[in-house]
Amino acid sequence: MKQLYEDLWVSTPELSVCETESAWMMHGFLLQHERGNMLISRVENAEDHQTIAGLGGIIRHYLSGWQEAGPGARQLQQRFNSALYCHTRALGPVSAFVEADDTFNLAEVHCGSFHLVPTPGHTPGSTTYLYASPFGKTYLFVGGTVIRDGNRWVTLQLPESNETDLRKSLEFYRALRPDVVLMSVTRGHPGWCEVSVRQWLALLDEAEHQPRDCRQRVVV
Fold first, then answer.
1. Mean pLDDT across the stretch 156-178?
2. Residue 33: inside a domain, yes or no?
3. DSSP β-bridge partners for residue 84
4. CB atoms within 10 A of CB 74
5. How large is the average pLDDT for residues 69-91?
6. Strand 24-26 relative to strand 185-186, pairing
7. Exposure winner among 3, 37, 133, 157, fewest CB in 10 A?
8. Mean pLDDT within 111-125
């Protein structure tokens, strides 16, 4: 894992090859919260699991979508006795890999400052996490709702994507003011990007007008 900020780490990229595409990369994030470490998204690398142990383990693991579930999620749950959370509409496919400890379908605040916001569209159970770090930056974990594909910002169209819901979620994003955008999947780009307000609004416009059709391909 690599340390990004005083309280935030990113996992070793996990490569996944589409049928006719170059590799996509999956990313997970360790957030050091005052009430205990939290993991967001997918971390399958065994060396990263060791790093997590060295940082004190995790108390909670949050998935942004069903694609982030994998064997590693169950291993982490068993190793650290951590609670796994996902959206209710992601529970079915997540359950093929790991048992969730709790689900949600409305916006919630956990541990006093960690915001869970359902943002359907990319998938029915897509979720965004928002956290204002005491070290000064606001982190926005967008999962796969908007991603960096090389030098472009795009949205991904999967078989279960809903364009109407996605537009509503992107409109909600426009009211937010993150300092750092953290993505669970990218291609040819790291899983995080610092943004100004102007850059944030511009990338949302770009992503909305550049859907990437992955309906016939396996992305992760």
1. 94
2. yes
3. 61
4. 14
5. 97
6. antiparallel
7. 3
8. 96
Whole-structure pTM value: 0.94
What is the side-by-side order of every strand in the sheet holding 127-132? 108-110, 114-118, 127-132, 138-143, 180-183, 192-194
CA angle centred on 211, ends 129 and 161, rounded to 5°: 60
Which amino acid appears at position 149 of this protein?
A: D
Give the tokens for residue 151.
């030098």
* Residue-range definition of the domain harbouring residue 95: 2-213
How many domains does the chain contain in total?
1
Is 112 within the bounds of a domain? yes
Who's near 62: CB < 8 A, 6+ residues apart? 38, 39, 40, 41, 85, 86, 116, 127, 129
Q: Is residue 24's pLDDT more than 90?
A: no
Residue 25 has, within 13 A of its CA and on its CB side, a CA count of 18
pLDDT band at 147 (very low <50, low <70, confident <90, very high): very high
- In whole angstroms, give the CA distance from residue 108 to residue 58: 20
- pLDDT of the residue at 21: 52
CATH code of the domain covering residue 50: 3.60.15.10
User: Is residue 81 left, alpha or beta, with left meaning phi > 0 and alpha meaning psi from -120 to 50?
Assistant: left
